[in-house]
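Quick review question:
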């Protein structure tokens, strides 16, 4: 009995070994959800993107260039990817203050910033030079009055006779919630969208996953009231 079981296990091991040799295996790892944990993957992601500039050669000699279009459609993933703060008055990556979210005119006037523009705004001061992927990823948090003064002065903003709370508010309004560089710019601050093959990298300004869910829920709720009673009953049974 023991020998039979042993032989069975050996056969299974040999089968799995042959299977692994005959196929390419892809192992995917998922980091924790904090910005600090996810930041540790940025370097590897950038290295993979750089390889896209090398074309694949078809049997007839045709060169095929790959284009990556990454779509991140929900928070907090969107906030991390573009370097936005989580929550707070500027929680939306569109850059509109939460108090103005219901004001359509304010939303229409505000122009959407590209990843490169967000990166340039991050680097417009001096604090970006102390950014560190290992231990200091949010450079605009818990700043002293002296640090706030230096940062705003470097950005050529009028700070005459302002107190610390006013300085903090001015910096917050200037950054529109930007806390760090876009995730794929972090390993090297000399990177640009062109050098990193990020021209097609897209981060939606809205939350389509939430929006679609709400639209579908509204349809499910409203639709039965526009149908005959017998059809309403059948739909209710299905739902």
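Suggested answer, residue by residue:
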């Amino acid at each position: 009995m023991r020998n039979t079981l042993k032989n069975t296990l050996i056969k299974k091991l040999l089968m799995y070994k042959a299977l692994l040799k005959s196929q390419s295996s892809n192992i995917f790892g998922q980091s924790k959800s904090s910005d600090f944990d996810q930041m540790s993957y940025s370097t590897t992601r950038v290295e993979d993107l750089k390889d896209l500039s090398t074309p694949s050669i078809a049997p007839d000699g045709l060169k095929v260039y790959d284009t990556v279009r990454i779509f991140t459609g929900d928070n907090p993933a969107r906030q991390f990817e573009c370097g936005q703060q989580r929550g707070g008055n500027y929680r939306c990556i569109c850059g509109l203050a939460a108090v103005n979210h219901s004001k359509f005119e304010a939303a229409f006037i505000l122009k959407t910033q590209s990843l490169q523009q967000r990166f340039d705004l991050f680097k417009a001061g001096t604090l970006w030079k102390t950014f560190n992927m290992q231990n200091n990823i949010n450079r605009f948090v818990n700043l002293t009055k002296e640090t706030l003064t230096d940062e705003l002065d470097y950005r050529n903003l009028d700070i005459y006779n302002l107190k610390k709370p006013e300085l903090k508010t001015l910096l917050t309004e200037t950054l529109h919630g930007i806390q760090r560089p876009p995730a794929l710019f972090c390993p090297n601050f000399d990177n640009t969208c062109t050098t990193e093959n990020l021209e097609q990298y897209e981060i939606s300004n809205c939350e389509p996953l939430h929006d679609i869910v709400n639209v579908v829920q509204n349809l499910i709720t409203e639709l039965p009231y526009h149908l005959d009673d017998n059809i309403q009953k059948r739909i209710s049974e299905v739902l």
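Why it works: The two ends are 53 Å apart (CA to CA). The chain has two domains: 31-206, 214-239.
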